[in-house]
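In this section we walk through a basic example: taking a raw amino acid sequence and producing a predicted 3D structure, encoded as discrete structure tokens. The instruction is simple. Fold the sequence below.
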Amino acid sequence: MRPSSIQQDRAIGAILGSAAGDALGAPYEFHPSIGPDAPVRMHAGGPWELGEWTDDTSMALPILWALAEGRSLEDEQTLDRIVTTWADWTRDAKDVGIQTRQILATARTAADARAATRALHEATGRTAGNGSLMRTGPVALGCLAASDQVLADAARRLSDLTHADPEAGDACVLWSLAIRRAILDGQLDLRAGLTQLPARRLDLWAGRIAEAEAHLPWEFANNGWVVAAMQAAWSAIVHAEGLQQRLEMAVRAGDDTDTVAAIAGSLAGAVDGASAVPEEWRRHLHGWAGERVGTAVDAVRWAEGALA
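The resulting token sequence is shown next.
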């Protein structure tokens, strides 16, 4: 399908909003919640420069690049390229999630990655981190005209490369379908994807969504867990208005702030559009982009390529 100008702005917003949330939250990472009234500003902190995105965006970009090259997320060779790029990135990355680094330490193909995360899950039962949800934003751009089932399968397929736990896959399915709904219709509807989950887990996730709507982002402990990260992100979206306020509220959750804000930004950007990203943020936005440093201008171009 050829998206309208409004839909294109929203689709680009899913990418730019996520990167902006990532960079906004980076200097606040691993700090306690800063509460509802403290100011949140984009600034340098820790290893991160002003406006620099982190691993959240760095892992989303290879998915976006594959789409911009006209590749299909159903193609195993596409997934191989994504995994290889991720593995190369981990060598010099400033920050990589513990589980993700462990999976990608030996993986060179999608099959390698899936085998490694399955083995880890069987050994520990703990592969439900937020590391696949944080990068799921681009998936919807490649499936705007596809069926719900095709998009759900693609989201789970990308999640399964590093996170074997079905909880992570479920969250990516829900979020990706919500992003597409926002892009196409301008509607925020996280429940729309419930029909694409296994029936035995549908009520569980419906309850989690309701819980997110009844609480504020900083009330969800352990947001390194994919469920709490999604709940905190959804809470920030429903309890604030406009992209900037939604991302600031996500950062106020504390702990894994860059990831919660990146997750929130992919959906908030998809409904509010790229035009809602403040120019002050856009001007400083930058980060890893393969062999060079990318900027907001590049992110827009890549997103446009994925839509072509």
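Looking at the output, two observations stand out. The two ends are 9 Å apart (CA to CA). Residues 5-25 form the longest helix (21 residues). In the next section we compare this with other chains.
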